[in-house]
Write a structure and sequence with these properties.
One of its GO terms (cellular component) is cytoplasm. 3-phosphoshikimate binds at residues 20-21, 25, 163-165, 191, 309, 336. The chain has two domains: 3-17 and 235-426, Enolpyruvate transferase domain (UDP-n-acetylglucosamine1-carboxyvinyl-transferase, Chain, Alpha-beta prism), CATH 3.65.10; 20-232, UDP-n-acetylglucosamine1-carboxyvinyl-transferase, Chain. 31% of the residues lie in helices and 23% in strands. It has helices at 20-32, 45-56, 90-100, 121-129, 165-174, 192-204, 237-250, 269-277, 311-320, 340-350, 382-394, 414-420, and strands at residues 3-6, 10-15, 35-39, 60-62, 68-71, 84-85, 106-110, 133-136, 145-148, 154-158, 181-185, 209-211, 215-218, 230-232, 251-258, 280-284, 289-293, 301-303, 324-328, 355-357, 361-365, 375-376, 398-401, 424-426. The strands form six sheets. A four-stranded mixed sheet has the order 22-23-1-24, covered by helices on one side. A four-stranded mixed sheet has the order 2-15-17-16. α9 links the parallel β18 (301-303) and β19 (324-328). α2 packs parallel to α3. The radius of gyration is 21 Å and the shape is globular.
Length: 427
């Protein structure tokens, strides 16, 4: 599906979807438990992959109506009857790789072309350090993966600058091992707030973890038991970033974004970024409401070491700002669903943006950029598609984003939501 977005103004009130990051973790945590009810989940292509994995390991998920009703495998995953296809969900694959290593037998994980190109090697190494079997069928550290267990308790050493999801996977599995797992980080941890999210969810499921001097640790022999058997997913700040950017670039009077309460999400940083760029924005934290107006923006420097998912959004803001916007510490953003650094450089160039790409930085020259509608590629990547669609709101003429259906990964109603607040969109 291609979507055409014409320059238009937005206004009104809109609610953000639930957090994808929290939903993944809550579904798998409910799987590790004997079961749980998950309120306000994000039901999307990615989170359905995690639901299918829980079922493959012996649980069940009733998603016919909200909330989700999950019966878990109570810390003892079965060997799946078939290969588990994680489709395009990198979070699913990494989190359930450690789950597979708890089973007494072999599990095979695979995914689509994009997922089969993403690095899994450090997590495979960690599982082998714990006595498990962990192989890439192509011997390149990428899926398809073959996992065997059960792993033992112990200490592992892994890099922290490839993916924080390795830490999340080991913490979640470690709680149900006999004596737990200690994780020693060999390098600085990138995307650290995502581990904070994991620890917050685990705490809600009564699983204790700790931050050590050199990494993380989780005691073994713990039971996943959420209070009253229930968990509620908060609103998603990654998704909110597109709506807030739409308001800063194209609001007619004000745009009010609801459902945005403080949490461990690193992408809360979008509020500070917009403030630093000069946006007229106000956050009532108690009410979970952010109000934003169309504003004159100024370029800034932003380190995305902890907030990789914000890079496409910041790049669009930079193209509409005065001066230069420097996005730094972004090499790890190249290993997402696509190389998002290169993708945004290429597509903003098509729209009239002036961009300089380097290995670990992306610079947008706002004073040299005049956004003009064009046909742009979506790279089958939900974050690229949504960011470019927001750019289309302020570009002259019409911007056509290819393969835009992939927003269903994290924000299935994205285009309907834009339409509701006045965006000129045709599918």
């Amino acid at each position: 599906m291609d979507v055409a977005i014409s320059r238009s103004a937005v206004t009104g009130r809109v609610r953000v979807p639930p957090s994808k990051s929290y939903t993944h973790r809550a579904i798998l945590a409910a799987g590790y438990a004997d079961g749980a009810t998950i309120h306000n989940p994000l039901v999307s292509a990615d989170t359905r992959a995690t639901m299918r994995a829980v079922e493959a390991y012996g649980g069940s998920v009733d998603d016919r109506d909200a909330p989700l009703s999950i019966t878990g495998f109570d810390g003892r995953p079965n060997v799946p009857d078939n290969v588990i296809d994680c489709t395009n969900s990198g979070t699913t694959m990494r989190l359930i790789t450690a789950t597979a290593a708890l089973a007494d037998g072999l599990t095979v994980l695979t995914g689509d072309d994009s997922l089969r190109s993403r690095p899994q090697g450090p997590l495979l190494d960690a599982i082998e350090q714990l006595g498990g079997r962990a192989e890439s069928t192509r011997e390149n550290g990428q899926a398809p993966l073959v996992l065997g267990g059960p792993i033992e308790s112990g200490s592992v050493s892994i890099p922290g600058d490839v993916s924080s999801q390795y830490v999340t996977a080991l913490l979640m599995a470690g709680g149900v091992t006999t004596d737990g797992i200690t994780i020693e980080l060999e390098t600085e941890l990138k995307s650290a707030p995502y581990v904070d999210i994991t620890r917050e969810v685990l705490d809600a499921f009564d699983v204790e973890t700790e931050r050590t001097e050199s990494g993380f640790a989780v005691e073994g022999g713990q039971d996943y038991r959420p209070e009253s058997g229930e968990y509620t997913v908060p609103g998603d700040f990654s998704s909110a970033s597109y709506l807030l950017t739409a308001g800063a670039l194209a609001a007619d009077s004000t745009l009010v974004v609801e459902g945005v309460y403080p949490s461990a999400q690193g992408d809360i940083a979008i509020v500070d970024i917009l403030e630093r760029m000069g946006a007229d924005i106000d956050w009532d934290r108690d009410a979970g409401v952010i109000t934003v107006e169309r504003s004159t923006l100024t370029g800034i420097e932003v380190d995305v070491g902890d907030t990789p998912d914000l890079l496409p959004t910041i790049a669009v803001l930079g193209a509409a700002a005065d001066g230069e916007t420097h996005i730094v510490n972004c090499e790890h953003v190249r290993y997402k669903e696509t190389d998002r650094v290169a993708a945004m450089a290429n597509e903003l160039d098509k729209l009239g943006g002036a961009v300089t790409e380097a290995h670990d930085t992306l610079t947008i020259h706002g004073e040299e950029s005049t956004l003009q509608g064009a046909r742009v590629a979506g790279y089958d990547d939900h974050r690229i598609i949504m960011a470019l669609s927001i750019a289309g709101l302020s570009a002259k003429g019409t911007t056509t984003v290819e393969n835009a259906e992939h927003v269903d990964v994290s924000f299935p109603n994205f285009f309907a939501t834009l339409d509701e607040i006045g965006a000129d969109i045709s599918r």
